[in-house]
Amino acid sequence: MQLPRETFARWLETSGIESEALAARGADLYLAAACVAMDREAIDAFEKHMLAPLGRTIGGVALTPDQLDELRQQLRVSLLLPPGCRIGKFRGQGPLAAWVRVCAVRTALGLVQARDQQPREDEMALEHLVAPNGDQEISAIKGQYREAFQAALSKCFATLPPRGKTLLRMHFLDGMSIDAMAVVFGVHRATVARRLVAIRRQVLEEISQALALDLRASSSELSQLVRLVRSEVHVSIQRILGDG
Q1: pTM attached to this predicted model
Q2: Residue 71 in contact with residue 54, Cβ under 8 Å?
Q3: Residue 61's beta-bridge partner residues?
Q4: Contact 239/132 with Cβ under 8 angstroms?
Q5: Which of 57, 104, 145, 237 is the residue whose CA sits 20 to 30 A from 72?
Q6: ∠ at Cα 142 (138, 144), nearest 5°?
Q7: How far is Cα 71 from Cα 63, in angstroms, rounded to an integer?
Q8: In terms of Cα–Cα distance, which of 223, 203, 222 is closest to 214?
Q9: CB-based contact 85:38 (threshold 8 Å)
């Protein structure tokens, strides 16, 4: 980490850090200040030492693997990214790891309470991905085959890897830009964009296959639906790639 001494000193003063806390938790406070400054090495260290060790049982709350992945995602957003950047509120009154664990417990409880709502939110993320600018024609056809279309979305989301689900939630539900996600995951923005594009293509293919199996539509109706959905691929990909 390359946080200048004067920047660290200014953050300590602005945050009202007591001298006793600095003496006892200097390394933790330095890491927090560097994360606030969006230092890449600091964010990587925070991920490695604070988020990665979190287990599937947080404060007695049992999480599924997907929920644990979602927990880490929410902590990345709330603790590390502006405008909230809650790690800036760490005052060194105890170990940073313990402070993060308290935040994790609160977030985990919220995840468990939101279990019934999450499937619908996941489908919303996929709908944004598949048809963000759908016209009246595609909306009418989707409405006609709503039940089958939603079933296909749910099935597609269930088959995505945890990282793919996280990317969708961060971009389409949390409203994070490609650049912000690139910072969180420590990759180039083009890598994030390519991953979103790959997920979109996978979802479109699986939806087309699922509809072909599940719908009793005529071949012409099915072809029309698939054509309308696929017609937006180029526009949506350009929007994703151009998101900053």
Answers
A1: 0.55
A2: yes
A3: 58
A4: yes
A5: 237
A6: 120
A7: 9
A8: 222
A9: no
Sign of the torsion angle spanned by Cα atoms 181, 25, 107, 69: positive
What distance in Å separates the CA atoms of residue 124 and residue 84, rounded to the nearest whole number?
A: 24
Phi, psi (deg, nearest 5) at residue 62: -85, 130
Structure tokens at 171: 């971009």
Residue range 63-90, pLDDT digits in tens: 888 888 888 988 998 899 877 789 999 9
Q: Which two tokens stand for residue 199?
A: 């997920």
User: 186-226 pLDDT, tens per residue?
Assistant: 678 888 888 888 887 777 777 777 766 666 656 666 566 65
Q: Quote the tokens at residue 105.
A: 């417990």
Identity at 129, one-letter amino acid code: L
Select the highest-mean-pLDDT range: 22-26, 100-104, 133-137, 183-187. 22-26
Alpha helices in the chain (DSSP H): 5-15, 19-36, 40-46, 65-75, 96-113, 118-130, 136-144, 146-159, 162-168, 178-185, 189-214, 219-230, 233-242
Cβ neighbours of residue 30 closer than 8 Å, sequence gap 6 or more:
1, 3, 8
Q: Which two tokens stand for residue 83?
A: 């405008």
Give the list of residues 6+ apart from residue 142 with CB closer than 8 angstroms, or none.
131, 134, 149, 225
Instruction: List the beta bridge partners of residue 62.
Output: 57
Q: Judge whether 183 and 82 are in contact, CB under 8 Å.
A: no
The pair of structure tokens assigned to 156 is 């597609």
Within 8 A by CB and 6+ apart from 189, the residues are 178, 179, 181, 182, 244
The contacts of residue 11 (CB under 8 Å, 6+ apart) are 33, 36, 37
Angle at which helices 118-130 and 189-214 pack, to 10 degrees? 100
